[in-house]
């Protein structure tokens, strides 16, 4: 007997599917309750027989998506950085559990996922946020396929909302000069000038130690990044984002000068604090030796600088990194050099990110050819 349908009441059927014998010769069955007509039960049995013969049948699990995602997050805690895990947890808690948590993992269909995304968009979430939620869900369901919980990933069949990318905000030469002029009056001047001239990520700057800086050679080495649990909790120094993020960055003379001034100021603060100073060797530390809180940096220092310089309040700390790349590429710097400075895995990533600079570079290339080939003797 390959399969059997047993009536269990009004519009309720028990479908038994023969799966073979175990190691001790005992017969193995998969038992599934189907609510509906007998045709629904027959359809399920026929599909299950086909999947069994193809070797792709998986026994239905009663595990809900909420339960499965909790387990997925717990397993991920050991293999991802604290900041990444916090982001995953927020996506699951805010977006995936409220819309898909009650669904059975084994009975999740593309229609369920698309309806969930439509609900999130209707509540005002951006297409970018929905796509981030999808990336996490897709990864979790891929793992479910690998472990035999389901035989097909329904997230791979979903049509995603179109993301309208906002124009990148960057500082041009004049805006950057205005920003740095106002930053020179700020306690964290060296942090801001380093952001514009190094192309480092904010976390990389805040995780920088003096042992990584060679003020004589005018270089620094990116070795780690600062992270805070929950954004405001205890801080830790973590591995860089990717292996390519470990890099050496050459610094302009003015940046070295600002770091020298900052180091002298830090030494004076350390002396004044005495035993109350916790020396972690950080380049950017407050008067007690601790790394400054990111939100305070933005609210009390970065935003006021933007206001004094007449720059848009929507600019972010991270946009200093974008500005560095755009300024270099607009000036004709080889994109490979820019990619290495930013810590990108390859130059194509740099070109894709800063494609808005390419038309300007093409004009420069044409002008260079005109001068080299057709200049009058």
Strand content: 5-15%
Q: Tell me, what's the shape? A: elongated
Give unreliable regions as ranges: none
Mean pLDDT: 89
Class computed from helices, strands and strand pairing: mainly alpha
Question: Order of strands across the widest beta sheet?
Answer: 1-2-3
Radius of gyration over C-alpha positions, nearest whole angstrom = 29 Å
Provide the helix percentage: 40-55%
Alpha-carbon distance between the two ends: 95 Å
Verbal overview:
There is one protein chain. This protein is mainly α. The chain has 14 helices and eight strands. A three-stranded antiparallel beta sheet has the order 1-2-3, covered by helices on one side. The chain has a three-stranded antiparallel beta sheet with strand order 4-5-8, with no helix packed on it. Strand 4 and strand 5 form a beta hairpin. The longest helix has 21 residues. The chain is elongated, with a radius of gyration of 29 Å.
Quick structural summary:
With 377 residues, the protein is mainly alpha-helical.
Topology:
Elements: E1 3-9, E2 12-21, E3 27-35, H1 38-54, H2 65-76, H3 82-100, H4 110-122, H5 127-146, H6 173-183, H7 189-198, H8 202-206, E4 213-214, E5 219-222, E6 225-228, E7 235-238, E8 247-250, H9 253-273, H10 294-309, H11 319-330, H12 335-342, H13 347-353, H14 358-374
Antiparallel strand pairs: 1-2, 2-3, 4-5, 5-8, 6-7
Helix pairs in contact: 2-3, 3-4, 3-5, 6-10, 7-9, 7-11, 11-12, 12-13
